[in-house]
Amino acid sequence: MSQSKLDAARLKVLEACHSEKFAHPSVHTVTFQPLGPKKNADRMAVEQWNILGQRWLFLAVCDGHVGCSTSDYTIKTLPGRLKKALEILISEDCGGRLDRNNFKEAGSMVSSMLYHEIINFDLSLVHDIRDICPNPSQITEEHARKLIQDNLEVVERAFQGTTLSMAIVNLDHHFMWAAGVGDSTIAVSTIRSTGKREVKRICELHTLKNRREFYRVVMAHHASEGPVVDRDTDKILGWLGMTRAIGDLPLKMHSAYMRYLFQFMPNYGNISRFVDKIVSPPYVIAKPSVVSADLESVWRADPVLVLHSDGVDSLIEGSVVFSPDLPKKIDPLDVLPYLLPDARFDSRVEALLEHNVEPRWSRDERNMAIDILGNLLGGTNVERLELVTNKRRLLAEEPSFLIDDVTIVVARLAE
User: Fold this and answer.
1) Higher pLDDT, 144 or 353
2) I need a surface site. Which of 101, 172, 236, 311 has the fewest CB within 10 A?
3) What's the pLDDT band for 402 if we cut at 50, 70, 90?
4) More confident: 121 or 396
5) Which PROSITE patterns match (predicted)?
């Protein structure tokens, strides 16, 4: 293939991206959906906070499902709530300071705060529904449709759902907290003494592939209900593939809400088929995994935080993109170390991806997140790059492949 064809294919990928770059520290982001931004339910946030004279970095990725209402609302609302809660905690419970002298003692308090703030945020969606419909079993279908029409924004963000992957980093004292709900990833990468990069997942993924999560979900419901996990779809009740999420209230609230309210949501297909399946909610919870980390010992090892939606997993596995018949059982964290800044080139990454890569894929864009995305989509393989932006094939009545929303945030903390 000629260089001109590669450049043209690269340009089409870039046109389907929205990217940003932030300085001090260096944070690069990208979100990609070849069918256009209106089809992209991923959301992300990068904020720099000044709390009592200290510099904090906030990062988040939300991967919405069934629509973008919940992910959009979460990314617009939750960061401000967390910032306020952190400032109050430091002021009232930490004597006005949170530094290396009291990090260990205060760590559990911050973890607890994040845990409860995320749960309470999810509960606020529940309260909003109860406020507009306190007694669902007493309303008619006509009344339900009117309630939905008059409160569509509130009902949609309750009906839809989102993952959450987030971090707050104290840039002055080199420690952080991470939290995750669902199947979006947050990981940290450092350069080892050998010069090679390594990547470690910080928060576990809440999916049915996680054995502990699978058994937690299944054992919470009586066998008389029938299978909680649908074998044909590998989803809870055939609805959702993850075990924890923000929103998705039909799977959390009393079954009367699905029967008398949510099943009348317009434009969501035949959702009435789930009415009799929802017997004893909750089937999904919003409890986050929260982890604290002291970064002082690795601050000189070029620590990089990576947050991404599961669109990255889909590209690497290939089950709905390049190899639908032979999906690869590859952990994305086996690939990412070779695509991060200053990573040593290793031909193994090309063997894993089954195409050649280019370390500075974004070229003049100089965007670390785009470098990762471009190499996952096809690297220097023109045919693959053209394939993932081919709208005609993506919009076919029976498309041969699918491109999930892909969002990547890369933060080089010590820069």
Assistant:
1) 144
2) 101
3) confident
4) 121
5) PPM_1, PPM_2
Q: Is the domain covering 3-412 a CATH 3.30.160.20 domain?
A: no
What distance in Å separates the CA atoms of residue 263 and residue 6, rounded to the nearest whole number? 48
Rounded CA-CA distance 238/277 in Å is 9
Q: Which two tokens stand for residue 301?
A: 């090892």
Query: What are the extents of the domains in the chain?
Result: 3-412
Cβ-proximal residues to 318 (8 Å cutoff; 6+ apart), any chain: 324, 326, 327, 328
SS3 55: strand
384 token code pair: 């693959």
Q: Are strands 289-294 and 175-181 parallel, antiparallel or unpaired?
A: antiparallel
In this prediction the pTM is 0.96
Cross-strand pairs, 285: 244
What are the pLDDT digits (tens) for 364-386?
999 999 999 999 999 999 999 99
What value does the mean pLDDT of the chain take? 94
Q: In sequence order, which residues have a C-beta less than 8 Å from that of residue 57 and are 6 or more positions away? A: 25, 27, 46, 47, 48, 49, 167, 168, 169, 171, 411, 413
412 strand-pairing partners: 26, 304
| Strand blocks (E) in 93-208 | 161-162, 164-170, 175-181, 185-191, 197-201
Among the residues of 220-265, which ranges form H helices?
255-260
> Using an 8 Å Cβ cutoff, are 101 and 198 in contact?
no
pLDDT at position 3, please? 80
The residue among 19, 15, 38 whose CA lies nearest residue 28 is 19
What is the rounded CA–CA span in Å between residue 105 and residue 201?
A: 24
Compute and round to an integer the Cα radius of gyration of the chain: 22
92/109 Cα distance (integer angstroms):
12
Helix (H, G, I), strand (E, B) or coil at 62: strand
Question: Which amino acid makes up residue 297?
Answer: S
* Mean per-residue pLDDT, 328-348: 86
Largest CA distance in the chain: 68
